[in-house]
Amino acid sequence: MAATGGLRAVSVLGLGETTREAGSTAVESTVCVEHAPFFNWYTRFVTGPEVMRFSPAQKLRLALDNLINPFNLATIFGVASIEIAANPHTAYGPGFPGWGRLSGVNFTQDMTDQFFGTFAVPTVTRTDPHYHRRPDFSIPRRVLHCVDDTFWQSADNGSYTLNYSQLIAPVIDISISNLYVPGQQTHFSADAERYAVDLATAPIDNLITEFVPSIASHIHVRVVFVQRIINRVAVNPP
């Protein structure tokens, strides 16, 4: 683009021996990306069934991108403000201090979930940390695929295996959250209930990822924003 524009500007000004037609067509060039590969993180929402093999570094970067995404941060802080405004008598306290504490807890929980669910467990088990859409399926089959992917997912080598991230990561998240979340019951039955709720609501995230891009292509909304909002509101285990 720079080369084409530069040639066109020079030709219009009539400088040097440049012809008047210079820059009228695009100048072809090749960009070397061998040492700095470009990865479009947004494509994980719109790609189909093809496998995108991630290196451990890419899985870690994906987890970080999910965490610090502005839409994710806005959702964390926004939902915390709604919860404190609706019930100021929580263990976090009322007002701005309570909002700050709740936002910090939600952020830490999300950070733990991303670290283990997107990076650590997929890296150890060599599995793909993101959901693959199937726009080529019929709607009933796409819904079934959303549910099935909760337990069965793609591996790095293109085969299918257990969804270790969904089955193991919540156990780690619950165990760690028991150490610092105020007012949270930590006995086994409460932990089992939180795990069951997490497993039962897991298809919601897949359904959002599967169908929202199709809707967003018509109404021009940001998929990440819609996904984070619905996740925070719909998936709120006790």
Reconstruct the topology from this structure:
Elements: H1 2-13, H2 43-46, H3 56-68, H4 70-86, H5 95-125, H6 139-148, E1 152-154, E2 160-162, H7 164-177, H8 188-219, H9 223-234
Antiparallel strand pairs: 1-2
Structure overview:
The structure is a single chain. The chain is an all-alpha fold and 238 residues long. It folds into two domains: 30 residues, no CATH class; 196 residues, no CATH class. 61% of the residues lie in helices and 3% in strands. The protein contains nine helices and two strands; from the N terminus they run ααααααββααα. A two-stranded antiparallel sheet has the order 1-2. Strand 1 and strand 2 form a beta hairpin. The longest helix is centred in the C-terminal third of the chain and has 32 residues.
Q: Give the averaged pLDDT, no decimals.
A: 78
Please identify the structural class as seen in this structure.
mainly alpha
Shape: extended
Order of helices and strands: HHHHHHEEHHH
Count of β-strands? 2
Sketch the major β-sheet.
Answer: 2 strands, antiparallel
Oligomer: single chain
Number of helices: 9
